Amino acid sequence: MPYSVFYSPYYYADIGEGHVFPIRKFELVRKILLDEGTLGRDDIAEPEQAAVEDLLLVHTQRIIFRACDQVL
Q1: Secondary structure E strands in the chain
Q2: What distance in Å separates the CA atoms of residue 46 and residue 16, rounded to the nearest whole number?
Q3: What average pLDDT values come out for the chain (72 residues) when binned by 10 residues?
Q4: Up-side HSE of residue 38: CA atoms within 13 Å toward CB?
Q5: Which H helix or E strand runs over 16?
Q6: pLDDT reported for residue 72
Q7: pLDDT digit string (tens) for 37-57?
Q8: Through-space distance between the first and last CA atoms of the chain, rounded to whole angstroms
């Protein structure tokens, strides 16, 4: 496979169905790709948790701590 596909049901944020970025779409896309045979279950890898050092490259410490405390 010339590309990597990552998915995990554990990386979910309930941001509401009306949000401009509907988070549930990732679950639905995964289901469609599996159902139509584009991907097999072995083609999908579960991502590892990002290290705080890596997150600090693109986010502020405040945002990271708020996300960890689930108070965003």
Answers
A1: 5-6, 44-45
A2: 24
A3: 83 80 88 96 92 94 87 70
A4: 11
A5: none
A6: 65
A7: 999 999 999 999 889 999 999
A8: 36
DSSP H stretches of helix in the chain: 25-35, 52-55, 61-68
Which two tokens mark 71? Answer: 């108070």
Give the per-residue pLDDT at 46: 93
Report yes or no: 5 and 44 within 8 Å, Cβ to Cβ. yes
Sorted by sequence, the CB contacts under 8 Å of residue 1 that are 6+ apart come out as 43
CA distance 32 to 55: 30
- How many angstroms from the chain centroid is the CA of residue 40? 19
Say how far apart CA 50 and CA 26 lie, in whole Å: 19
* φ, ψ of residue 46 in degrees (nearest 5): -90, 125
